Backbone:
């Protein structure tokens, strides 16, 4: 039995409380299509038009129009008994082909997996997107009890280890300018919410060469991260796991992480 430690308070499919990148404009039609696919992801079974409408909050007439279009394009197929709908493999195959040609992630993945094997903890690759961190790749840890995350999740800059690392990649003047007059909500009891305290923590961490969160984003989960630049893009890599293990292996994980970033 695998026990995964997740921050369920920030899981978009469950609560919609996920931090989003700034500067974007939501497009209702696109959001509705994604809501439909996420409904299938949650339920893992065929759903009727009524089910989809109720689960997503989309008016039934609009839901019918979207489903009809997706069916006509080959992304959904219909069942007669019971009268229901389910996705075909088309979206999966298209996404797999797109992912296979990613200019960064596929090249970095083998190193992330080696870092995961060496640390035995979950390894995450992330990048800044607006005022949040987006997870791009996750190599889950090898322990039965481990931190679990998924690519595409967003995390706050101020409370996640990758967020701190990405902020730490900035020059001090730019760091202070970006953090000035911002509110930093307490995600957990240990989240740093004071601007100067956060800046001091980031500056001290940069001098060490790595950044740490101690239950600041997910209770009882510690993470160690570092930033690296690839083709003028700044990424963050983190090793994350339960506090009871990370407290003991913090120094070892930091050395493994810094070494991996240098190799990449």
Residues:
């Amino acid at each position: 039995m695998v026990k995964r430690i997740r921050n369920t308070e920030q899981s978009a499919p469950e609560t919609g409380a996920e931090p989003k990148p700034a500067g974007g404009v939501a497009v209702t039609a696109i959001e509705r299509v994604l809501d439909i696919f996420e409904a299938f992801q949650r339920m893992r079974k065929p759903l009727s038009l009524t089910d989809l409408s109720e689960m997503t909050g989309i008016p039934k007439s609009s839901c019918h129009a979207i489903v009809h279009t997706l069916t006509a394009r080959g992304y959904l197929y219909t069942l007669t008994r019971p009268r229901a709908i389910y996705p075909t493999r088309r979206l999966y195959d298209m996404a797999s082909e797109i992912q296979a040609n990613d200019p960064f992630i596929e090249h970095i993945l083998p190193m992330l997996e080696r870092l995961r094997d060496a640390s035995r903890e979950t390894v995450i690759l992330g990048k800044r997107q607006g005022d949040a961190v987006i997870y791009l790749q996750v190599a889950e840890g090898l322990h039965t009890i481990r931190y679990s995350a998924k690519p595409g999740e967003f995390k706050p800059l101020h409370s996640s280890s990758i967020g701190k690392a990405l902020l730490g990649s900035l020059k001090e003047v730019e760091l202070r300018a970006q953090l000035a007059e911002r509110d930093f909500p307490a995600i957990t009891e240990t989240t740093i919410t004071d601007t100067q305290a956060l800046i001091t923590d980031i500056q001290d961490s940069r001098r060490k060469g790595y950044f740490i969160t101690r239950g600041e984003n997910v209770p009882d989960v510690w993470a160690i991260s570092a930033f690296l630049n690839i083709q003028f893009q700044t990424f963050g890599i983190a090793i994350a796991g339960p506090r009871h293990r990370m407290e003991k292996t913090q120094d070892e994980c930091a050395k493994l992480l810094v070494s991996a970033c240098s190799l990449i």
